[in-house]
Amino acid sequence: MICSHVFNRDGRPIGEFRNAWRTAAAAAGCPGRILHDFRRTAVRNLVRAGVPEKTAMTLTGHKTRSVFDRYDIVNETDLREAVRKLGQATGIGAGEGTSTGRR
């Protein structure tokens, strides 16, 4: 274990951390955020940084691939980047070719 007490008060573990979490999130300029928001961000950042998914799963504490995949949310920017990379790899720009991808 890297850190035995992430949430602590004077080195003693906090049993109930909801109020402490709300206060800390507000102080950090992230009011209304929940712990899983940051876990999701960590997963997205690790995957997009090229960290192997098995390593990312270990760091974020995900034991199953299906739950890890729920945190790795694909957005429109991800889709645009995938199309751009495909275009570079194939030499076909956006809008070229047919709907089947064949010329």
What does this structure look like?
- There is one protein chain.
- With 103 residues, the protein is mainly alpha-helical.
- The protein has a domain at 34-92.
- The protein is 52% helix and 4% strand.
- It has five helices and two strands; from the N terminus they run ββααααα.
- It has helices at 18-27, 35-48, 53-60, 65-71, 76-90; strands at 8-9, 12-13.
- The protein has a two-stranded antiparallel sheet with strand order 1-2.
- The model has no long low-confidence stretch (mean pLDDT 83).
Strands ordered across the widest β-sheet: 1-2
Main sheet record: 2 strands, antiparallel
Taken from the alpha-carbon principal axes, the silhouette is: elongated
Cα separation of the termini: 55 Å
Q: Which class do the helix and strand fractions yield?
A: mainly alpha
Any idea what the radius of gyration is?
20 Å
DSSP, total strands? 2
Element pattern in H and E = EEHHHHH
Oligomeric form: single chain
The overall pLDDT, averaged over residues, is: 83
Tally of alpha and pi helices:
5
Strand content: under 5%
Helix content: 40-55%
Poorly predicted runs: none
